[in-house]
Amino acid sequence: MTASRDEPAGGWVDGAAGLAALEPAARRRLARLPVARLDRGTALFRPGEAAKGFVVVLSGRIEVFLTGPSGRDILLYAVEPGGSCVQSTLGLLGGEEYSGEALTASEVRAVLIPKPEFLDLMDGSPAFRGFVFSAFAERMQAMMHLLERVAFQRIESRLAAALLDRAEGDEVRATHQELATAIGSAREVVSRRLDAFARAGLVVTERGAVALRDRAALARLAAVSD
Length: 226
What we know:
This protein is an alpha+beta fold. Helix content is 42%, strand content 23%. It has eight helices and eleven strands. The protein starts with a strand and ends with a helix.
């Protein structure tokens, strides 16, 4: 993980979601690691690369994508504070190479736990091991929900859910292509659905953004399962 700017190591462990129960020895080891600041759009890993360490996200959002043979991307999952990257965990524990690509979706503060340190903590710290496996289980459950949505949920429902999930206030800063990637669809399909949402008064589309006008209606639409 290459950082654009660094900040000194210190008390980051106390503020890290999920690490409150760490043993004192494990806490001291982690506290020595530096905090990295990553600009939006920074690539953390790409397909075919080996996992170099375990990333603890302190703030911001990292998105992991999978690219199909046709070149179309799908958003597998996002890593936020308290979460984990399934592909990194599999790579560190099982030696699997990355099949996806991870990009920062915002400015991110994160700590990279190098592979040797990660493996030592997995062996010697029950609290750290519990954090890793708990976050891994939650991420796997979220990926199962993604498969269900892509397989069974209508495009309109998936798009409404994506808009609500990404909204900052009443605005979503995303292109039609980014929204299409997030829901596993094509840009042209998303554009047509957004036009329909706009005609119904649910949103107002702008260049590179979507303004939400009826969150309650979008929430009802997102709840439709078929």
